[in-house]
Amino acid sequence: MNIEWLKWPQSLYFTKIKNSPAKFFSQSLGQQARLAMLLALVPIIALTLWYAQQVAKHQQTTNHIYQFNQSLILAFTSLKSDVSALEKAQLNNQLLNNAQLQKSIENKWQTTKKNIEFLKSSLASEQLVAKWLQIQKLTPKIGVVDVNYPQLHQHIDALEPNFNQAIQNRLADRTSAFAKINRYFLFGLLLLIPLLIVISLLVIRKVTRQLNAFERVILQLGDGDYTHPIELHGSEEFVALGKELDWLREELLRSHKQKDVFLRHVSHELKTPLASLKEGNSLLQSDSFGHITAPQQRIILIMDKALSRLATLIDDLLNYSAANHAMSHQLCTFEQLKSELVDHFEQQLSSSHLDIEWQNQNDRATVPYLPTKLILTQLIGNALQYAKSTIKIHFNVHHELVCINVLDDGPGIELSEQHKLMQPFYRGKHSDNHQGSGLGLAIVAECVKQLKGTARWQHTHSGAHICIKFPTQGAISHA
């Protein structure tokens, strides 16, 4: 078996991968692709060139054998006709006794013997050589006239099937050799194609892992996690991209801290003048400074509503600032939290004629007090603005996972807006006629993040359905 074609691609393969895989995958993606294609395609190209060379060589050898077989067949046919012609010439010379004819017969015999020697040496199988030797013994020597032609014809006729079989065997040997070349080629393909697939899958897997790492980093930044450093490994492009993203993370972290400081400072600074304004407005409403006319009363009411809105906005800013910082996870039962929320929204519920349906399937279950209260306060406050008649709140704990579902029968949430509503100060298309700061759902998102949970919109035919899930404190401690 000629396997020289296997040795060169293998040496090339080991030359190309003598560096460590980590060094290979630290190169640029374009260089990785070129090297992977080289490792995979060069052996296949080498195998194909070897196969083409062998096919051409086989075709040339087959043509030569075919031509040589034709010459052997012509020589054998000539031998048979020469022996018959010599037999007739010998019979005629017995009658004529012509010396010149006898000389011509002897010369013809010499040519015939050379033809026999040529056929014997051309098909050198033991069986044929033995038969050719028998025929050579029957051929006359110089000066010998008598030849046993019937016996010579008999030996030639007996040799002819073996001669034809030998001719066929030469062609069959070439066919077998060509089949062997095809087997080697197919065997090489069976070895190299899986190698190509393995190299391709390896490169795809490495690139996919890098893309997945990049996706996780983007999600990390999108979730507002700016504390963990970003470091991408792999190709040159990903390493450079990781450095750029880490710089962006640091800038976002700095901006986030500045924003928190600004919110806390402004919110607390506004509290004092706001309290003074509310106190002054109350004094004006009490007629302490004389009778208030109707126009003055309208102005005082406008001021009172504006102060209430400003107080709500400041409270939302303070809550949003608090939600962005670690909060105490003091536990309380859901029933305790429910009673506080009912008292908090009692006045608003009585004036809106809305009903809240509470469904608690775990009476003894506990939740972190402050973040859970902020979540439900914002969700119920939103639902009270949009609901038509009913708000449903379902609470359940299953497999150490707290599930809180808040449903209302309001106008619902557009699919195109769902990914934006958790952003600070964003207000949906249905909020034009409603008061609010646009921070409610952002506060919910920050509290859920602190609880290591998720907030998702559930698709409903009407109204809005928000599902909050987070692990119990026992599950978090165990993790």
Structure description:
The chain is α+β, with helices and mostly antiparallel strands and 479 residues long. It folds into three domains: 4-201, no CATH class; 234-323, Signal transduction histidine kinase, dimerisation/phosphotransfer (DHp) domain (Helix Hairpins); 326-478, Heat Shock Protein 90, CATH 3.30.565. The protein contains 13 helices and seven strands. A five-stranded mixed sheet has the order 2-4-5-7-6. A hairpin with a 3-residue loop joins strand 4 and strand 5 (401-408). GO terms for molecular function: ATP binding; phosphorelay sensor kinase activity. It is a multi-pass membrane protein.
Query: Largest sheet, if any?
Result: 5 strands, mixed
| Helical run tally | 13
Number of strands: 7
Strand order of the largest sheet: 2-4-5-7-6
The rounded Rg comes to 51 Å
GO molecular function: ATP binding; phosphorelay sensor kinase activity
EC number: 2.7.13.3
Enzyme class: transferase
Domain HAMP: 205-257
